Amino acid sequence: MEKSRDTLKRALPVFAVLAALIVLAVVLYIYARTSLKALRLGMSMSRDAYAGIMARTIPSLVGMGLSAVLVAVLSLSFQTITESRVLTPSMIGFDSVFIATQTILVFVFGSSNRWFANAVLNYLLSAGVMVAVSVTMYGIMLRKNKNNIVFLLLFGLILSGIVRSGVNYIEVLMDPDEFQQVRSATSVTVNNMNTAIIGITAPLMILLTAAMLARHRIYDVMSLGEANAVNLGIAYTSELRLNLLLIAAGMSVVTAMIGSLTFLGLIAVNISRELFQTYRHKILFTGAALTASFVLIAGQTLVELLEYAVPVTVIIDLAGCSYMFFLILRENRV
Question: Which among 162, 102, 146, 147 has a CA at the least distance from the CA of 127?
């Protein structure tokens, strides 16, 4: 108990620094979207104009913050059950399933049907399909209590490639106008996140994050490996399936609202591990969530300051790829 308290005391100053950096990034983000933009255009910022910009900025900040926190929590839990620091849930192929759902919906029923045109119905359908596909994959690949995550990842990568090939073929057959509608719907990024569904996704993100955080002691035990976790009384197979179901639900929410953030979780989780040097998931979850929020908001702030010279996902993916290579090389040396 004393050791746990000492670890928490050492972590608190780091948490405070990360929180301060997030506040600074938020202030700069708001400044870049309001005063700096007006200055560049040689215009004065009226109260009505400022209120209009903030009405769009606040949902974006909320969406970025909640998405970053959820991605970090999901990534850490996924790395715990896979016992690997170089894997992320995005490798299962959630983004390809989302794109396929939108493409087939428009190709079969047209872009004017309510399931595509209505943002809420579209999200509910897309999220439902992503979760259903994920649960089916889990049932096929993890049946008979064989907890082989490697086969699940390989199956997800293969399925993703097949789905993308099929989508590309369907897009060739589509009407050009409907093709543009699909492209617009599937090109969800931080710059044009689907804030129309934030009223639904925000409570879901909070609930999923809370559910994962409440299980931090179980993750502490699962990080010891399957054999040790079973000996310590953990129903490993049931916990594994429940965790994968929560990951599927969480990734479906993030993908539908803000798009793919493949390497954000990888960066945040590994930085948190390096900063805190502990196995306790309560601390790692908090550190990864704060780090992911700072990285995403600061990255988008940089994009705003550079006047959209490069998307924030490009910056994150470049840093994430470089960091992944570093981790792979370091683990091989070890």
Answer: 102
Say if pTM beats, i.e. exceeds, 0.70. Answer: yes
* AA identity, residue 11: A
Would you give the DSSP letter of residue 141? H
Tens digits of residue pLDDT in 209-224: 999 999 999 999 988 8
Phi and psi, residue 17, nearest 5°: -65, -45
In the block, residue with structure tokens 């989780």: 269
Q: Please, are residues 111 and 178 in contact by the beta-carbon 8 Å criterion?
A: yes
Q: DSSP labels for 53-105?
A: HHHHHHHHHHHHHHHHHHHHHHHHHHHHHHT-SS--GGGG-HHHHHHHHHHHH
Contact assessment for residue 79 and residue 85, using Cβ atoms and an 8 Å cutoff: yes
Looking up tokens 């953990």, which residue turns up? 234
**CA contacts within 13 A on the Cβ side of 15:** 13
The pair phi, psi for residue 310, each rounded to 5°, is -155, 140
- List, in order of start, the domains of the chain with CATH numbers: 2-333 (1.10.3470.10)
**Contact in structure between 129 and 97 (CB atoms under 8 Å):** yes
pLDDT band for 331, please (50, 70, 90 cuts). Answer: low
